[in-house]
Amino acid sequence: MIKAIKGTKDTFSPEIEKWHFLEDNVRIILENFNYTEIRTPIFEETSLFSRGIGENTDIVGKEMYSFIDKSENNVTLKPEMTASVMRSVIEHSLHRNKPLNKFYYISPMFRQERPQAGRLRQFHQFGAEVLGSNSPYLDAEMIIMPYMILSNLGLENFKVKINSLGTPQSREKYKIILKEYLTDKFEELSEESKRRFETNILRIFDSKLEQDIQIMNNAPKLLDYLSEEDLNHFETVKNILENTQIDFEIDTKLVRGLDYYTHTTFEIVSESVGAQSALLGGGRYNLLSKQLGEDEIPAVGFAAGMERILLAMTNEKLFNEEEQPKIPLYVVRLSEDVTAQAFNLALLFRMDGIITEVDYLNRSVKAQMREANRLGAKFTLLVGGEEFQNEKIILKKMETGESEEFSIDDTDGILNLISKSEYEDEIEE
Ligand code: HAM
Questions:
Q1: pLDDT tens per residue, range 199-209
Q2: How far is the CA of 109 from the centre of ligand 1 (A)?
Q3: Is the beta carbon of 136 within 6 A of some atom in ligand 1?
Q4: What is the pLDDT of residue 155?
Q5: Domain assignment present for 207
Q6: How many Å apart are CA 391 and CA 276, to the nearest integer?
Q7: 359-392 residue pLDDT tens
Q8: What Cα–Cα distance (Å) separates residue 184 from each residue in 190, 220, 235?
Q9: Domain containing 289: what range?
Q10: Residue 333 sits in the same domain as residue 296
Q11: What average pLDDT does the segment 69-85 reach?
């Protein structure tokens, strides 16, 4: 049997309804902030990511799905969107036509990581990017927006962590200090951290190994080496968050795994998802445009892992797993000779926006009623028999058994009754 590739997933009802619920929430909130959707190709030239994210990052070094296509192009399935959004803005000169470009996305991403709960090889992110401004209000907005989304979904067990990485200049100065501090302790570091010591020293802060954590807890802090300007920017972001009543903590070890960050970085982590606790991450990336050969375009953004958010929602019991989606109408065919009429009637209600089911399996009337019950149909429309010969059809309310006769062309009357009942149900909820 051919199976889906390890680390990928098929999604269908009842899971798909959870995805729709999440996506609807994302769109509503991000559009309220006047972000519009951007869609970019699933694959890009590999150099976009190796230059944008950085050669020495885990993503580029170990996790990308890259291949040479039949035209000898080196292409990569996108592992994230930030570099693609920047590429698109530059390619279409959007930054020259408009001072500020605000985009959001909902899209699959690809990273060849070891699959586990909350970590897939094809996963999905929603996120937002704003290009063209240095305003600390935008750094704060990139935390406020996902915070609102998570709260709106009903999630509670999450925490905002923020840090500042300053400019590359302050970071380079700090790296020398950190290197001095770690030189003495080099032999005590894990093998992975010894390697990072040479390639990407800040990432040693990401190590989950006790031996590294001990050492890094006492390491000099990057925040102490930032310039006054960097610190002012960070201070303002913190003030804005405080004023908007967003709880956050400062995590000086939050270095993030992508090289393009400058100034503010942040993550929202949750205790409801196990080891892969980051629901989302982001930050400012003022120099990414330069790495892609363009003038400086100050920018900031975030991206959230949708599988992780859905997992957190499941673990916080925000989905009513027992509740089956109900449909408003099932058209029951009382005899075979009215099959076409039943089908046509169903079509009329469907065109009027009522979710309607009809039998396609030549089932007996009893079996059709059973199916209507299984689908939770609120009404059945009985088509056939003597009534039908007299150009009448019967609408039956399943909960009470009450039925009402309608003339076959009185679809408006039937629609009114169904809509009224839908409306009453909504009020009850
Ligand atoms: P990232 O931290 O690499 O940042 O990913 C953001 C989120 O995507 C993570 O917090 C996590 O929830 C989810 N995620 C990452 N890898 C996986 C995986 N293998 N399986 C499931 N979920 C995963 C970025 O991607 C940056 N582009 C964020 C950003 C936007 N920075 C500025 N703008």
A1: 889 999 988 89
A2: 9
A3: no
A4: 97
A5: no
A6: 62
A7: 999 999 999 999 999 999 999 999 999 999 999 9
A8: 14, 14, 33
A9: 15-167+227-315
A10: no
A11: 98
